[in-house]
Model the fold of this input.
Amino acid sequence: MSGDYGRSRHNDLETGGSRNYPDDEGSGPFDIVRTKRAPIDRLKKWRQAALVLNASRRFRYTLDLKKEEERKQLIAKIRMHAQVIRAAVLFQAAGQGISVPRPSKSPSSPTRIGDFGLSSEELVQMNREHDLSLLQQCGGVNGVAEKLKSNPEKGVPGDENDILERKNTFGSNTYPRKKGKNFWTFVWEACRDTTLIILMVAAAASLALGIKTEGIKEGWYDGGSIAIAVFIVIVFTAVSDYKQSLQFQVLNEEKQNIQMEVVRSGRRTKVSIFDLVVGDVVPLKIGDQVPADGLVITGHSLALDESSMTGESKIVHKDPTREPFLMSGCKVADGYGSMLVTSVGINTEWGLLMASISEDNGEETPLQVRLNGVATFIGIVGLAVAVAVLIILVVRFFTGHTRNSDGSVQYRAGRTSVGDAIDGFVKIFTVAVTIVVVAVPEGLPLAVTLTLAYSMRKMMADKALVRRLSACETMGSATTICSDKTGTLTLNQMTVVEVYACGGKLDSPENKSLLPPRVLSLLSEGIAQNTTGSVFVPEGGGALEISGSPTEKAILQWGLNIGMDFSAVRADSKIIHAFPFNSEKKRGGVAVKLSNSEVHVHWKGAAEIVLACCTGYIDANDSVAQMDEDKLSFFKKAIEDMAVGSLRCVAIAYRMYEMDKIPTSDEELDNWQLPEGELILLAIVGIKDPCRPGVREAVQLCVDAGVKVRMVTGDNLQTARAIALECGILGSNENATEPYLMEGKSFRSMTDSQRLDVADKISVMGRSSPNDKLLLVQALRKRGHVVAVTGDGTNDAPALHEADIGLAMGIQGTEVAKESSDIIILDDNFASVVKVVRWGRSVYANIQKFIQFQLTVNVAALIINVVAAVSSGNVPLNAVQLLWVNLIMDTLGALALATEPPTDHLMRRAPVGRREPLITNIMWRNLLIQALYQVTVLLILNFRGISILKLTPDASGRAVRIRNTLIFNAFVFCQVFNEFNARKPDQMNVWKGVTKNRLFMGIVGLEVVLQVMIIFFLGKFASTVRLSWKLWLISIIIGIMSWPLAVVGKLIPVPERPLSEFFTRRQKNPSGGEDSLAKRHLEDESVLKSTG
Done:
């Protein structure tokens, strides 16, 4: 890494540099840097420590700990109920004897709708009780399919009328969800704010006293104006919260809308899980979620993880005869196959489970917890100030030191009536309570959910679906991204471009005349049978449709190009046993029995691994030749040459096998290990998968932002190296050596301490297993990194779970990977990952803008009222005015500043340390300069305003009201103009891009319009008078002066060391100082860069 960048990491004070701290939690209740899998007692601790005025609102978007416990208990009950039913059925079956088919317990009068041979009730009973006898009575899986007018191979017809009829007969694959809160619920929750309740009580008392003393015509203003102001605050708050909740509802629906592959009319097509119908045929592979209850049609080593339904993490093997029943919500742990859907929606156990539990999408984020800490601290200070003001004003009032605007004493012992005395006390009490409203920043933690809701909605447009709120902000702190290669950095559009067969290289991969008949036949057999893909031939002619993974599609397409007839080959041989491809062994195999009773075992996988198992190859004369050293070296060199050319190398091999050696019983066959040795090589294919356009720029953007990109791939190391050089992960060929370039097995064989030392340096890891990826993530996190990991396979789940941010691929990703992830990248594109980093940083930056703005208002309002109260016994800003300021500061301010879109500037600075102070030195400087200016100007106006403005004091107190109105007006305009300053805390040009943010401009405009209306038309309510144009000009000039003042302030240098460190001793990192990891990381980076 360059020296310039190293310096910029320490000089960028807005982010507080990039110190690395250990991942363990601090001692404070609000010191939770990672809420992902945080212990419940930690979550309880910070809730109890927070100073909260309105718990229902403050904790709305946090995990409801009580409901979570109830939810777990309910799930356990439903699981227990399902197991009891099954246990009873099994007990009954055992008692009657397995061999004797017992009479079916089908419903006495099943209600059959339409022309189907089975009713919904019969299907539900069969599946729920795992009733094999009822299944046998129906003719097995094929019989059930026939009764449901479905074909085990071609599925349902799939036309609109057929789908509609099935939905009407058997129901849709949806379950009743609990409705979201309506608007009035949010109004009620806003009303539950403690201070607002106290204000309403005070308003009622003031109203009663006012009407009693002054009559209803004049006496209702004081109490009524406070009541109306509180009502406006409640409505604004409720509208803002309601709109926010609607955004979360839309995002939650998007999360649940899984796209499934189904077979309809013989064609594989993708549909929403909600559009699945009874009779559908669904292909299943490792990592898929079973979308509905159903029966196994075909299964090869098919095994399911049923823990989501049974609570037991036991893998259950499934087959069409002994264990055919599949439960919705379970995950495919191994193998592949297909299923017939028999029950959907509420008729499944999963549907019942989901309908019974209320989904609590609440989840606190680290920033939210920290902001609760900030709000608590400010709130305690504000509360102390409010109590002090209350005591001072009450003492002054009852000792006769408080005067009216005409100079008369407000309270005279023995002369002032009880009503007037109570009225005076209520007004004082109201001001004190209003100071608490302004001082306790209740909206501060909620600003996080506001900016997250906004960011998540915008990120959907940028092809990123956020599953966990905290991931969105944690991404802003990411220091490294461990990315897959295939489909993320590359296009995932694969084609076979080179072929080695018959002992040499083919001039053209598609020239089948170069391949002898036997090789062609065996290749066709191996390609058609050893695949999870398929080829669909349209009945009316037209182009063939190939489905499957991109690698499968490329090889199937090549097979078709050399004359393979997919359907004929599949019909001519039958699969006996399959070993599905897995990322540990890097290969998959299948044993097939031909029509002449011969058995062939076909293998396909990573070229060098399959080649190592080969003892022969078929030569140009169509005969088997020995794989001698020369030929082995030739093929190894071919693999290396293709890999250097960034081709993915796949070898296809086979062997004969004796029929009498194949296990005869189903149980033995399930556990049979396919023979892996003495293979005969048929072909090695080189598959081209070009780099994504723009990926090099995206990687460079990460480098500029201080985020190191690492490629972790299962591909050949040389292929990975070629792609890494092409997309800029490796700077040059000189970098392409250990430890920057490493194989997974080398990393795996190291000790823990060696892995810690080398982890930082790794840029590319090839031939890595999912466990290698997990080890790398763990090592990087121990080094103090905030790690983002991309993954698509089932085996990536542990690494996605362990990482600070797990990013699953939306197109190629399995459901297991997606469920373990925090964010789903919908287009599988690395550029979208970088956009997530931008948004993550934007969340943090927006919150800092809002904190700076809000604290400026807090400090200024508190100081002005306290100083005025102590010195004169009166406050220039009354309850209604403070409530309006609070509205600007909390709801409107959050809307304006928390919804700023990300800028390029965010990607030119270092990642934000997760333990960095929220309020940086730059922010302290900005807010203190602005608060000091506001306090000084407004206090001068408060004490000398009448003489400066040349107002004539009179008995009616108009001069005092003009002065107080000017103070209020100038104070509001100071906040309006300071909102612009808050947009760019560390940049001179605060107007850059402001016109593009229509929401910001709209809110500022609304604030100005409402302020004008208050002064001109609502004087009675706000205790203001109309101002002359000169005083309006003075108000605006006082406000606008905050702009040049901000520019001058930004020229003042601030210390590098955060202010908090001057008062607290930093906990040392166990590895020898808090900065040691960062420094070592910088050194490693600079070595890598300097060689580039």
Observations:
- The two ends are 10 Å apart (CA to CA).
- The first helix runs from residue 3 to 11.
